[in-house]
Amino acid sequence: MADVVLFHSALGLRPSVLAAADRLRDAGNKVWTPDLYQGRTADNLPDAIVLRDSIEPHVMFDRAEAAMADVPAGVVYAGYSLGASYAALVSRARGDASALVFLHDAPTFLPGIPATMHIADPDEWLVQDDLRRAEENPDTEVFSYAGCSHLFTDPDTKESTPFDAAAADLTWERVIEFLERTDKRRQGS
After folding, report:
1. Judging by beta carbons within 10 Å of its beta carbon (0-12, 13-18, 19+), is residue 39 exposed, middle or buried?
2. What would the DSSP string read from start to end of 163-185?
3. How far is CA 42 from the centre of its chain?
4. Which end of the chain, N or C, is surrounded by fewer C-beta atoms within 10 Å?
5. Average pLDDT score over residue span 152-164
6. What is d(CA 50, CA 20) in angstroms, rounded to the nearest whole number?
């Protein structure tokens, strides 16, 4: 099926991201999970913001690019929140995305590249102008999940971003179906 690069959120490369990668692998995809924090993680969003801000953005971008050294062209770039932004940045820099999967964020999309976006409704972290642009992009499908909080697909979150099992399952079903469509389109079927 698809080759997928899955970037973590500001919380770092935690067990929930690795479990999501395994879920995608179980559906037949090959998945890479770059670690932009080099093993460091946070347990909550305030600590995650401190961790994120302790690393220069260009350093994280360089780490993301370095992690792509053995990844073939034509991958699906995916990411959680902050990771969605890095998925968009790296895909733009490499210019080889077959598709984009954005979870919990609406980063700048790439015209002509199929994308799927899954966001909480409401989401206090989401920039509404970015969401509006995504909704206007004919290549992007946007799914919102009413009553959920920012990182609703992440079972390891606590406090202000509780996990929502039903919404998470629906999100992953939709993402896997999107990857199947992307793979068929790539193969010309």
Report:
1. exposed
2. --HHHHHHHHHHHHHHHHHHHHH
3. 18
4. C
5. 77
6. 24
